[in-house]
Amino acid sequence: MAGGWIGLAALPMFIMLLVYYGAGKPIAQQARRLLLPWLAWSVIYACLKYTRSLINGAPLSSEFAPWMVLTGTSLHLWFLSFSFLFLLLCVLVPERTPTPLLTFVCVLLSGASLWVSNTANLLIPLVQWMPVIPAAFAGLLMQRFSNQTVVPAALGCSAIVALYFGLDTMTPQLAIAGLAVALAVAIPMRQTKLVDSLSGLSLGMYLVHPAVMVFTLIFVAKDEVLFFPLVLLGSILITALLKRFAPAIV
Questions:
Q1: CA-CA distance, 143 to 140, in Å (whole number)?
Q2: Which member of 71, 84, 91, 134 has the lowest number of beta carbons within 10 Å of its beta carbon?
């Protein structure tokens, strides 16, 4: 879909904010918030894949792959497993680590991950995980700086420089994500019920949207003009229902 590359900026943006707000919190709490939905939706998408294999008469090997142990049974679930593993690694960082030293290590590893993402033929899930590592480290560093706009703004500007030098894998999305987070922190908005409601639906919409897309294509519309609003509306409605009846998985 035209402009879809812009929407991908939501992934590093959410990872940055998730690490910023989540690093240092109890791992059990993070497991409930990230691993429980990951497991639940892996089961849901596994059932859908199994059903599809029966309908199409295709072998199960065409629907399932070994890398799903790390990503889940639908590729987009990698966001949850990556986020949990990164937060788990954050526990290993001593609280007394000097900020300059931590910044140096984060910048070094971020640069290395971005270089590898753009120069190596990575396999799943590394091809998904590696490009967003800079965003995760940015979220961690945001906790250390009194001015939270500095780190995401630096990430956004660095991504633009990397893009200028030909590193184009995820760098446009990192640039958008970094600058968007910097603006959001610098220009705080008044909290409203509408904003709270929409933010509360965001994770569930991300988790459910591939299933909604498939059903929309099969049963409703293939026209691009209708497809996007129908998928958006369907994802919102299903997530709202799940928030009411199964809140632990969204």
A1: 6
A2: 91
| One-letter amino acid for residue 63 of the chain | E
Per-residue model confidence as pLDDT tens digits over 103-115: 999 999 999 999 9
Amino acid residing at 231: V
pLDDT at 196: 84
Compute the distance between CA of residue 123 and CA of residue 136 in angstroms, rounded to an integer.
20
Considering only CA atoms, which of 188, 185, 137 is closest in space to residue 158?
137
| Residue 114 CB burial class (10 angstroms; 0-12, 13-18, ≥19) | buried
Q: Can you give the chain as a three-state secondary structure string?
A: CCCHHHHCCHHHHHHHHHHHHHCCCCHHHHHHHHHHHHHHHHHHHHHHHHHHHHHHCCCHHHCCCCCHHHHCCCHHHHHHHHHHHHHHHHCCCCCCCCHHHHHHHHHHHHHHHHHHHHHCCCCCCHHHHHHHHHHHHHHHHHCCCCCCCHHHHHHHHHHHHHHHCCCCCCHHHHHHHHHHHHHHHHCCCCCCHHHHHHHHHHHHHHHHHHHHHHHHHHHHCCCHHHHHHHHHHHHHHHHHHHHHHCHHHC
State the pLDDT confidence band at 2, using cuts at 50, 70 and 90.
low
What is the band of 217 on the pLDDT scale with cuts at 50, 70, 90?
Answer: confident
Taking alpha carbons only, the member of 32, 41, 83 closest to residue 248 is 32
